Amino acid sequence: MVAHNDVLAAFRHQVDWCEQLGSAFTARLLRILADDIEAGGPVAALISGFDEEPVAAALALRFAGAFHARALEEADARLVALYDKAATDGGVHVGDMEMRSILLDDLVGASEHYQTYLKSAPQTNEIGRSAVLMAGYLMIADRFSLPLDIAEIGASAGLNLGFDQFSYRLGVLETGTSGSSVRLAPVWAGGTPPSACVSVRHRRGCDIAPMDASDARDRLRLQCYVWPDQPERLARLRGALQIARELAIRVERMSADVFVEDVLSQRQPGAVQVIAHTIMWQYMPEPMRGHIARMIEVAGASASEEAPLAWLRFEPLDVKDVPTLSLTMWPGGDRQDLAQAHPHGREVNWVARSTGPSGKLGRDVS
Fold it and tell me: What are phi and psi of 70, to 5 degrees?
């Protein structure tokens, strides 16, 4: 059984992260739950047998998702009203005592639901990251003038594999699919990625616990982990779910190393093979990370202008750092750090220089 103090520390750590990432409502909810744990209330009783490390297991976010799922299912009128207020004004006019009563009454009355959610890790598929990835795909398309074969590891439901069906404003650049139900326009600083034609020949994804955009339960699970006081994120997630269904995107249940080996063994000329991933690298064991990196580098050594290879990743360079968009392209194998960005793609600071068909770095594009 996990230590009481470790649980409290995990909740307070997540409270800080929610505040930094712009969800005052979720921070407040978790603070109320932490107070109940400290007081030995029903939340403490529910987690009494939890035996995973609470930070790594995202225990606090499991609770946040469980409450939001109940609200999305309209299972309790008071909870639905609270979450409606969260979406409109952050729930600031609901007092702490009232909010505590709503949350704990539902937790006690629907304990089986909450027990179920505590058994599995949160599932997210953050669509805002496509704005960051799109900038990288533009760099690749500008360099090679070829279509892309996209292979994403840790793809969840594969929603970011439909990136080319979204519309974007990246600084002064308008790109993507005009009129899309998903429009991404992050706060942009620095230069602008090149204007290039991005087309997708093939798209594949893998995940150790893939989600299916055509399955109602999976759609609910993805939506419930979006923070309720960020309704714009929920709206674009729903739009991306519909696009994924239209594209019939399926994510393979496969470990990342096996998937990458399979993808690299099937490379075909006429397109850039891209290995992509976002905010998942740190969760893999170090030996697997090293093995994947070596496989990509070996494959890169045999890349050509007719069959290029690119490795695009949006990951923290260190777990405490702001995530960085990095790109390595072969032939050549030179790495560029293109941008630093908010984990949800809300703000992007573009630091790269453009490339052209020659592969040589050009002037900053502004």
Answer: -60, -40
Model pLDDT, residue 320: 75
**With contact defined as beta carbons under 8 Å apart, do 193 and 300 qualify?**
no
String of DSSP letters for 19-33: HHTT-HHHHHHHHHH
Which residue bears the tokens 């993808």?
Answer: 263
Spacing of C-alpha 84 from chain mean position:
24
Distance CA 199, CA 323 (A): 26
At 249, phi and psi to the nearest 5?
-70, 130
Which regions in the chain score pLDDT beneath 50? 355-366
pLDDT tens-place string over residues 164-202: 999 999 999 999 999 999 999 999 999 999 999 999 999
Tokens for 39? 């007081």
Strand partners, 286: none
Cβ pair 352, 365 in contact under 8 A? no
Query: Where does residue 104 rank: exposed (0-12), middle (13-18), buried (19+ CB within 10 A)?
Result: middle
Name which of 307, 359, 304 is nearest 336 in CA terms.
359
Amino acid at 225: Y
Whole-number Å distance between alpha carbons of 329 and 221: 35
pLDDT value at position 121?
Answer: 87
**How much is the pLDDT for 56?**
84
Strands 323-330 and 167-170, by their bridges, are unpaired
How many residues are there in the chain?
A: 366
- Residue 354 per-residue DSSP state: P
Backbone angles phi, psi at 203, to 5 degrees: -140, 130
| Predicted pLDDT of residue 355 | 44
Other Cβ atoms closer than 10 A to 294? 10
Q: Are 229 and 241 in contact (CB under 8 A)?
A: no
Measured distance CA(234)–CA(227) in Å, rounded: 8
pLDDT of residue 359: 38
Nearest residue to 166 via CA among 176, 151, 174, 155:
176
The single-letter DSSP state of residue 277 is: E
Tell me the residue type at 68. H
